Amino acid sequence: MRKPIRWLLSIMLIAAMFLTACGSSGSSGGETSEENVLNVFNWSEYLPESVLQQFEEETGIDVNYTTFSSNEEMYAKLSSGNLGYDIAVPTLFFIEMLVKEDMLEKINTDNIPNLKNLNPDFTGTFADPKDEYSVPYLWGSVVIAVNKDLVKKDVKGFADLFDPEFENSLVMPEDNRASIGAMLGILGYPINSTDEKQIEEAGELLKDLTPNIKAFNGDNPKGLLITGEAKAGIMYSAEAALAKRENPNIEIIFPEEPSFLWQDNFVIPKGAPHKENAEKFIDFILRPEISKQISEAYPYGNPNAEAVKLLSEDIQQEMSIPEEFFDRAEYARDVGEATVLYDRIWTEVKQ
After folding, report:
1. Which pTM does this prediction carry?
2. What is the chain's percent helix, strand, coil content, to nearest 5?
3. What is the mean pLDDT of residues 213-240?
4. For residue 214, what pLDDT is reported?
5. Any signal peptide, and if so, which residues (predicted)?
6. What does the alpha-carbon distance between residue 134 and residue 266 come to, in Å, rounded to a whole number?
């Protein structure tokens, strides 16, 4: 839901893990034992560098940080066999899939006392009802952002983005469920539809929108909006809020059609080589003062109730979502065998 914080290519991560296992020197130049390493796999623009540095300084654990730009990319890498990741941050409906396929370790909650800081509204989710495999990190919604300096049309929903005014000027998420889901919402279909006919129809509608789409961008969609290369876009809520920080003329619109809510959680992939370090990291992130820093940098919804209390009114306003929007929004869910259809349509749209 995001530029790499500390970009290391996967091959570099694997090499680093190999050297660590052999007792080679870590990033600090000194001896680094296997126990003093943590390999994090996360969205880009989703965790401040300062937080990673503070964790390293307090614990002596060296963090190797790699990023992904979509749940599908994350899932593909975890499915190919654990490459040494100790923590990943998937969205709930992908956690559903990972749990069903026995790809996650159970979390030892005794090692995470700061779980007490979480708002219970974000625990016991449909993806992990007993909170055995995941810990809430951040949440948000899919919204529309419009540069009012460049757009005359009064935009109220996804359907308005078909206007010729937006030719070659929309940025869209690198997310097939969000993009196809917006089309399902326009058509009045469930945004978690598993009906082949409905999904195909939504796919055709998305293809009709392609003349207006400048880019699919999962790393930094707000950048195109801030610079004026894109007039508007469908994006995650904090991306829109950060764009507005840079350019007050950017308007955030909660679409009149049904839209997605999402929640990203920490998980520990099966076979993680440094599981206790992963649990130590999760507990560190759940400290109110640390979680506060994250929300100040990336104002997504924060499930950490104690951290929210520490945030300024301005940040809390950036994070807020209108209550009436929740009435027409849904969390993305695992669509089972229909996933193949969504993937095929997505490939066709991006050709």
Report:
1. 0.84
2. 45, 20, 35
3. 89
4. 95
5. 1-23
6. 5
